[in-house]
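Lab notes, practical 5.
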Amino acid sequence: MLTLTDKAQGKVKEILDSQPEPFAGLRVQVVGGGCSGFQYHMGFEKQENSGDEVLEMNGFRVFVDRGSSMYLDGTEIDWVEALTGSGFKFNNPNVKSTCGCGESFQA
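Output from the prediction step:
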């Protein structure tokens, strides 16, 4: 099961509410790429896809496709603010290694 911290949920809700058009929710997925083989991708969706796992959060839904769910099981997404920048941080217990830049992982 994928979870989002309260801070991450608040940030997603803030961004969703500021969009000029309505979205059904947030898609979180794992895609091929990067130096280590996999990367995380987040984006807003107009509708869920057939076969999606749908999670109800704080006033929005999160969609995870079947292929990504096995890589995201047990993952917590947090919103982090630091002097060097702000962003979503994935705490994934399934990761075996990451690349030097921290943008991709190997499971």
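Observations recorded by the TA: Helices lie at 6-17, 66-72. The first strand starts at residue 3 and ends at 4.
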